[in-house]
Amino acid sequence: MTQLREMPGIGDDVPEPADPAANGEAPPPRPPPVARPLSTLLRPTRNDTQELLRNRYLCRGAGLLLCGPTGIGKSSLTLQCAILWAIGKPAFGMVPTGPLRSLIIQAENDDGDLAEMRDGIIAGLNLSPEDAKRATDSIIVVREDTRTGYKFFCEVVRPLLAEHKPDLLFIDPALAYLGGEANTQRDVGGFLRNLLNPFLHEFNCGALVIHHTNKPPKGKEKPDWQAGDFAYLGAGSAEWANWARAVLAVRSIGSHSIFQLQAAKRGGRIGWKEADGQTAYVRYVAHAKDSGTIYWREVNPDEVETGGRPKSYDREEIFNLLPDEGLLPVEWEKAAMSECGVSRATFHRERLAFVKAGRVLKERTSRNYKPVRKG
Fold first, then answer.
1. DSSP 8-state secondary structure symbol assigned to residue 94
2. Domain 50-218+225-299 falls in which CATH fold?
3. What radius of gyration do the chain's Cα atoms show?
4. How does residue 17 score in pLDDT terms, banded at 50, 70 and 90?
5. Cβ contacts of residue 226 below 8 Å, gap of 6+?
6. Which of 6, 89, 188, 283 is most buried (most C-beta within 10 Å)?
7. Which helix (H) or strand (E) holds 306?
8. pLDDT (tens digit per residue) in 342-371
């Protein structure tokens, strides 16, 4: 059985465990981890039983952090993932290794809320009655909104993991159970590394931790986020992202219904692809078009208005961005998205069309795309 010590600042009102400290004895020290020569380690196989989401995006004993603004529907988004993974189907391009059992411990939704989400998702996904039953029978939901920190893990998490033995543990949201300061490494590290991690190892499961983002900065204070920066969107300490094996960020793009999924950490392993076959780190998702249905759908990037510009664009503007000396693909893409207001997918579609028409050539040495100007 995992031995837990109460973390300072994480549930200070909780007494020490009765066994064995009741007799004034300190708990026996745990042995160190097993050390092995590097040469003895084996590469994972396709049928690795420790893998939960394909390409080792998430494995047992590790955690995925999902960050997003308050009120956008993170709970329904993650429930939709759990439902699809329960029947072995991909969710937003994240592919499970097989049917996964989930335990969802959450604080914000009552039974009626969860039932509405369940029914909306099943209808939106158009699941057969057999798949719907199989999925919902494989997901255990619990509402806990009073216990935090050490008490939360000992009185709630451990008994439920022991009883239900899930493949995935959902904690929604993290701040409801932290019982400490979200911006201090001591409290966050204690919660994730010293309280959660031991149970992930003991019960051989993975975790999906839902976390809120900070209030969006405005004006000059707004940072110019790029690539892996998005791993740190979660409110508080950098330890949230540092602990997580993978980070997925849900970002507002100024729409009430369309959002960006940013694979912020370990995203190259998900398997997302751009139109030209390059690795993608961004997808767009949206609420159901029917406002009465709780369901998330994937959207074509062309549905997204970028930078406040209209969806229409002049393809010649994209071509004219190329100077005579050319641009690297990423430079041209960035300029097109910024100056022409097109999505990444639209840019790559037009780029391939320019190449096919002989209007653009790619240099082998510099890898620049150069325009072919008419005499």
1. B
2. Rossmann fold (3.40.50)
3. 24
4. very low
5. none
6. 188
7. none
8. 877 788 888 888 988 889 998 888 889 999
